[in-house]
Amino acid sequence: MVTGRARRIVRIAFLLIALGFGCGAVASNWDGVAAGFARLSQRSISLSVAAVVAALCCGMMTWRALLADLGSPLPVRRAAKVFFVGQLGKYIPGALWPVIAQMEMGRDLGVPRSRSAAAFFLTLPVQLGSGLLVAAVALLTAGPDALAPYAWALLLVPVLAVLLEPRVINTVIGFGLRRLGREPLERALTRRGMLAAVGWALAGWSAYGLHLAAIVGDLTASEDVLTVLLFSVGAFALSWCLGIMTFVVPAGAGVREVAMVAVVSPMLDQGAAIAAALCSRMVIIAGDLLCAGAAAWTARSSVCARPDESPRNAL
């Protein structure tokens, strides 16, 4: 039986190998990478950061919609604090740190741990299913050849579509809780709540696409803005979905960037593609930190402004 220590060693080794190959790719194409970064404008970077913040907020609203449908509607400020601060745990090796953080912070607001865990794990298939669908539509519209090497990933779309049907997912959740010896959830998911979550997820992919398009627009010779936008939406959604399928590295580190370089290669040379992937990663990290800091500050300000209001009463 594999011990916890052995699993940590495997994760660290995987990450080091991925980083090694990534550094090698950057070094071998350094002139092109440096030239790509030099072509990025301050305006594009600013637009990219703003789009990422909007996308991250849509992700928070996806999770909040699921949590509300399960019976724990949270005010936006407090939901943002739990979600964004908890999401910083994704940068720690191991897939469970974000959900552990959200469960503990949610408990302080009267949210049962099982409900927080259910909302967290439901967010992943919602984002994965909507992301693969968006990638297929966007890349097919922008250029069918760009999607061909990754068509196998689309086989998950019908599986996820069935899984996200409330009657199916409620049965799966109930079975899992019984196997774990836990009490069933007080409220079942509804189709209305699931549609709200999917709607926010689709809005998030549009914002993520705009974030990448702002970067790619400076690096490509194409003047077709619509094609660049559609291509960027599809490329980011596909690379993110491939990254989320890899749970052994923090936040899909390395996997998403490798996939993004490959997907955008029809539009960018390798040096520019690597620059786009690295810049995208840095912008997303900055967005995570900005959202976590802003959410914590606004939530604290809200509590300080109403010192007589307890968290449970605020619900």
Automatic annotation (TrEMBL):
Identify its membrane topology class.
Multi-pass membrane protein
Task: Check the record and name the InterPro entries matching this protein.
Answer: L-PG_synthase/AglD
**UniProt key word Methyltransferase:** no
Localization, UniProt = Cell membrane
Any transmembrane segments, and where? 45-67, 117-140, 152-173, 194-216, 228-251
Keyword list (alphabetical) reads:
Cell membrane, Membrane, Transmembrane, Transmembrane helix
Q: Provide the protein name.
A: Lysylphosphatidylglycerol synthase TM region
Instruction: Name a single GO cellular component.
Output: plasma membrane
UniProt entry tagged with the keyword Transmembrane: yes
Which PROSITE patterns does this one have?
PROKAR_LIPOPROTEIN
